[in-house]
Structure to design on (223 residues):
């Protein structure tokens, strides 16, 4: 039940935008997004609990399409500090207490 | 500064040793988690404790034994580990399950 993420990796220049997608083959209860920098612990970005919900802070936002069992993370006007690996974590409606992480998307922002 | 503290930061042990990993949080969280993470892979869920009771065991081998002595502490007891168990072990906590998780810095475990 691991979610699928795309792309696997992306390289951006500062100021460019990126979208990371996360999808599941099963009905989702929630989607979580985390960023992990090299050698550090994962850091929580946001959680989406309702279909259609969009959340964001600063220039990072996310949407959740419950019908399609998909979520997307939007990074606008990227900064060097956005570099890292982005993981989506999904909890199924049948086991909402278990969050399983996708394989990750490596994002590199270059000057 | 991390609000979830894990000790030790590094651990090297032989396959016949017994050791324990410790995790502590003082945020009043009632859900705590153990994850295993290999290089360039996502954190892999091992155990979930909810209100000090084990609620999820992801078919983890019995050589890993979790313990939650109180709402602030989580231990992972290790015995007779294999070389493939070498990894970063992350502890996390959240207010309750399915809420934002706060991760510790992890214990890097090497099995000789």
């Amino acid at each position: 039940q691991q979610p699928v993420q795309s792309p696997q990796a992306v390289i951006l220049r500062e100021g460019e935008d990126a979208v990371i997608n996360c999808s599941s083959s099963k009905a989702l209860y929630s989607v979580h997004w985390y960023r992990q920098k090299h050698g550090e612990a994962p850091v929580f970005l946001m959680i989406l609990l309702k279909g259609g919900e969009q959340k964001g802070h600063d220039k990072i936002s996310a949407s959740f399409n419950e019908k399609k069992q998909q979520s997307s993370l939007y990074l606008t006007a990227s900064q060097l500090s956005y570099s890292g690996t982005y993981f989506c974590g999904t909890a199924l409606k049948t086991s909402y207490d278990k969050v399983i992480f996708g394989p990750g998307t490596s994002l590199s922002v270059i000057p | 500064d991390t609000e979830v503290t894990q000790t030790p930061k590094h651990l090297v042990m032989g396959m016949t040793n017994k050791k324990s990993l410790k995790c502590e949080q003082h945020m009043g969280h009632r859900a705590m988690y153990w994850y295993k993470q290999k290089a360039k892979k996502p954190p892999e869920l091992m155990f979930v404790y909810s209100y000090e009771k084990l609620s999820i065991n992801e078919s983890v081998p019995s050589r890993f034994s979790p313990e939650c002595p109180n709402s602030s502490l989580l231990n992972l007891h290790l015995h007779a580990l294999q070389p493939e168990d070498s990894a970063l072990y992350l502890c996390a906590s959240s207010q309750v399950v399915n809420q934002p998780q706060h991760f510790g810095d992890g214990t890097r475990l090497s099995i000789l």
